[in-house]
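Record format v2
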Amino acid sequence: METKQAMSPAEEERMIEEAFQDVLDGYLKSNHRKKVEIIERAFRFAKEAHKGIRRRSGEPYILHPIAVAKIASQEIGLGSTSICAALLHDVVEDTDYTVEDIEQHFGKKIAQLVEGLTKISGGIFGDKASLQAENFRKLLLTMSEDIRVVLIKMADRLHNMRTLGSMAPNKQYKIAGETLYIYAPLAHRLGLFAIKTELEDLSFKYEHPAAYARIAEQIRESEARRAAVYSDFSAPIKEKLDEMGLVYDAKARLKSVYSIWNKMETKHVPFKEVYDLYAMRIVFDCDDQSKEKAICWAIYSAITDIYKLHPDRTRDWIAVPKANGYQALHLTVMGPDGNWVEVQIRSRRMDEIAEKGFAAHWKYKIGESDEESELNVWLRTIKDILDNPEPSAIDFLDTLKLNLFASEIVVFTPKGELLTLPSGATVLDVAFALHSELGIHCIAGKVNHKLVPLSHKLSSGDQVEVLTSKSQQPQPEWESFLITAKAKTRLRQALRKNRQPVVAEGRRLLAEWLETHDIPDNNAVISKLQGTFHVPNREELCYQIGAQEIVLGEFLVKGLKKQAESQSSGIFSKLLKFNRKSPSKESDNTDEPSPRQEINTKETYELHSDENGSNYKIAECCCPIPGDEVMGFIDDNGEVVVHALNCPRAQVLKAGFGPRIVATRWERVSGKSLAHVRIEGIDRHGILQELIQMISTNMVIDIRKLDIEAHDEVFECDLWVRVGDVGVVSSLCDKVKTIDGVQSAARIH
Ligand code: MN
């Protein structure tokens, strides 16, 4: 390639014209309408615009857009609009021409595609992570407007990867990483299998040159042996297919260098074990699409007459195409050498879809009312997310990256409907996938008729039933086990929606209360309230008032009035925000702990709490609740930390810090504490609803968290409830034990 620099201008000119003619020839052989004139014009325009510019390799720049147009046309199967956009894709970016110029010469559609390509030309990894995400988002936004932008971008990326050798080494690494991280998974999602494989191999070659060379060498060495094994295996099959009168191609499917390496790395197996597992692909011609399925199964039957079938490795991607449109029939049989061999059976049409992906769908589309492809569903999901933008662009990138990388699972609804989900998806993902309302009110699921918690991870082939309850409310913790971006977005929306009326109610109550007591609504007053109740901002304050977690009482009035008068000093009110531990109005510098000597360790310390706070802290290790046998430990801040008497940490404290231990007694304690209860029993239909009904409706106990696990017929339920004291917990346990099927119910310490 280096010799190009030595070419004469005339030779170069001829090479450019030949390269373009090659694009045109390929296009003329395709099924597209023949719009040669506009393609010619686009070529002349681009050639003129890039005139005199060279790539780093020394070749004329125009050869790059020509190559991209060729890939778009011949490897992806796009038509004249895309070919023009590909030829012009770097004109706006690299020359003085504008999008308006393009529109004037080539019309709106081509100009829009070029604009989209220019916008995403910066690459995904900028200097700042959030910018990367923003860019990626733009890329997808544009993509959902017109998928061709992304397809041409793929062609651009593929050509850059093919010519990566002439790039500066630091750029090589960046581009290769980006390709593996974003473009290869995207190509896979778009069904561009051949391009995905090539992108992976090329990235791998630049990122791990030594490993690439080693595997490539091993492939060469084992070529002859492998060819012999394949020919032994395929000969009787071919004979049978000939007898059946089929026109077909049969070949050994070669594993890519990258996929071999990937398997060696992830499965920790040597080259021989990966490479020896080869596959055969049969592609047959068939003019009548309605007969394809029957022919696939006829071939299947012929092969299983010859070789022994692996009982559970048949994959019917015809009845259930993959999300990216892939269709084929796969089976695995025992070869003559005792190795399992995968055979893929496809019609010519299916093969084109597998290799060229999305674009091939257009070619075979019958009529206008063709069913919406699975890919469109995916694109719509992305649009869904984009239509409801979340504040954090980074989150968006993360969820999306997850979706692009995850392999997929297929699950069934009780009605036999199929859902494609990323692997790791949970029951709650399914609920949200079916309907937002189902997600919001989901309490558990039945997977293959067994009761499972919301967070249960699904496997391919699971039958999933979603159980709901009207009283169920969406919980923020759910987000931790949701996998799909759609479910996460919908959960966040529901949480926000649930919160808004409560905040509004709180705002109203607060305003009313302030007015009644003639207290002005100013920063000093609100800061003071925030400090008293330990809430970070006004919204949270209103929320807690609205939810009646905070009750505004008379005891607040005096302090607030005083506070309101000091409003004039802005700094003072700021200080208060930080000193919220101190409810006292006199202390300006309240960082000092209240003096320890105030607590007389010889006397029993009375534990008090009310709406205004408490004179103790609950130890996080054992979380005692009022009524438990407890003891106090005076911590470094002079505060009494309450431990359960039997808490292991308390034993250590008693031994080491005797003088700081104080006897305590629950006295005048109000408010709620969290208690953990475990219920075990025999699973039966409806038992969960009964449990929840009894606790939440009959006993009016607030359930904060619920975890259910079912193994075979037995279930275990972990419950976190908010209670006033231990008495409530024991009556809860007693009541729950009366439910048919419940074996035990006890508090967990
Ligand atoms: Mn380019």
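The CA atoms of residues 122 and 138 lie 11 Å apart.
The longest helix spans residues 209-243.
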